[in-house]
Amino acid sequence: MELKNILESVLFSAQEPLSVKDLREVLKTAAEQSPEAAEFKKASPELVTSALEALAQEHGVSGRSYRIVSVAERWQFVTQPEYAPWVKALVGERARPTRLSQPALETLAIIAYRQPITRAEVEQVRGVAIDGVLQTLLERGLVEQVGVAEVIGRPKTYGTTATFLEYFGLRALEDLPAADELRRIPVAKPEALLTVDPGLATAPPEQLQPAPAEAAPQAPAEAQPNP
Amino acid sequence: MELKNILESVLFSAQEPLSVKDLREVLKTAAEQSPEAAEFKKASPELVTSALEALAQEHGVSGRSYRIVSVAERWQFVTQPEYAPWVKALVGERARPTRLSQPALETLAIIAYRQPITRAEVEQVRGVAIDGVLQTLLERGLVEQVGVAEVIGRPKTYGTTATFLEYFGLRALEDLPAADELRRIPVAKPEALLTVDPGLATAPPEQLQPAPAEAAPQAPAEAQPNP
Amino acid sequence: MSDYKVKFEVFEGPLDLLLYLIKKQEVDIYEVNLTQLASQFIEYIEVMRMLDLDIAGEFLVMASTLMYIKSRELLPVDQQVQVEGEEDEDDPRWELIRQLVEYKKFKDAAAQLQQLESRQEHVYRREAPKPVFEAELQKPDVSIFDLINAVNTILKRVTDREGEAREIYEDKWSVSEKIEMLAKLIGSKPRLKFSELFEGATSRTEVVVTFLAMLELIRMRQIVCVQSDHFAEIEITKAEPQTPTVPTEIPEQAIFEDETAKPVPSESGPTPAN
Fold first, then answer.
1. What is the pTM of this model?
2. Given an 8 Å threshold on Cβ–Cβ distance, is B90 in contact with A13?
3. DSSP alpha helices (H): ranges in B74-213?
């Protein structure tokens, strides 16, 4: 029995996308439960990954109505887009999922490019309170708390999730368009709230300079739509 | 786009098995919702069935870890049995009813091949009473009352259910092993007892008659006086 | 003796025991010596009695049938009783063999069902997750660019607030100049690769400015971005002429709107297929 066929049967039976870690866990559990499954107990991440890639390749050229893809480092079977009319008819779907509003997108963009970031920092950038928006993004699973900022009050910091990557069809945060450029454009941060910036490995620290301390978040007039 | 690929994508995306009727409904809905899906709006049951059979055939020889089957005339993707250790490790232990006892299996086999059949007729074949066993089969939904026999006392007749087909993974009663031979009774009497080769599988057609309701149950002992 | 006990407990009934005895004789059911079979059966019943086992009524009934058959067999042929009106079909020997053959077939069928039963324990039906539409995963014409557009807005807002143009506007290109240039370019060449837009850029800043200009053009619905495949290169085409849309003021609470509430590029600016 080949590893790639085993991985295929698992992905095939899964209710959600699986990471290499998840799959290795399954291989281990199976080996512990069933003696006949012992062979792949300790398949390395490299071995699993290359088997998955071979499998995705096979399915890619098989001419079937579905294939295997990896999104946000998680593997899954998906149907080919051209069959969407029938699949949608099956699940009774008519309306597309609701889209993010402009305020939500702006908030999400700031969090995506500047994570980890506190709520106050986001509000400072957007110039309006973001309570409701942040709540929705949290509920929708697009952002999550990732830690606390080492400043007075130890406010929570937020970052994007794997769901965020899936929603936008990205493999990783590095795939955000013009990520490097946009991350480096200085954005004013109030001095008092400047967070330690552990996460942005790609952004040279000197470019994340604090702007001069500024007035507290502006009046709601700022929330007007784009010019 | 081929019908069988469309059906494949739908089965692949389904959360439960689908009948030909369900699938034709999906084709119709898709055609109504999306102009590009119009082609198969009115595919006949025969066309859909033969596409499904071709598809199942393709998957059967593809050497993949899953295949398409029809169980109780409802089509579905299933994993091959040899991958069970890994699939089980992923989805956890399933609640599956306890295995059937030998008496239950024998009784079920008789009912399956000879339905509709009365309790007395089953007992006559098995040579023992089946009260408890029949009760169990009824409770598990594997058999059900299907009518009454038009003989004195109008005893109930029993037959198997869709649950029976599902439990054993059969498409239809025709798929029962050796169905032809066993379903149509009577055992051919050899010309000369004790000397003739059995060759029952090739019993002449005139002896293949449907189970007569007149087969009034009679215990062996009643046939002859005790010496 | 304990051997017997174990065996008796596994017989489903008298027919089952008879089949076992026939199997021990290693002959076909049709060729079995019924006299011998009857003797063996009765011996077993005797053993059961001796062991004080509970003997089911069916075994006793069968025993008497067998004894009757045996008694007939033991008589010389010319003295065998020809029961008045007894048809050949009623021959108790034939009746027994017919029953045995039939029972044997169902027993075999039961064994096959058992195999199916255990096979099914290893068969798992796929229960698909809620379908993932690739089109939604990629929808690059909406999602990514909306996101970047949002960054653009933010950057401009911050810049305005600070009352000065920072690094990004210091170069020889301003965003508005770049917009004009791009608009001209797309007018002369209907389809551009994303990377082509940046080919002439001489600085990082120019790349950013170009990018922002492109975003602005998308927002103004002058151009449309398409991606033929999930990770294929993005291409830029001229948008279909249309009535300009004014973004609706969205209350902060209305985070997610129905697509009818806000025009999106994918709906309002279909890309001509080619």
1. 0.57
2. yes
3. 84-91, 102-114, 119-126, 131-139, 162-168, 179-183
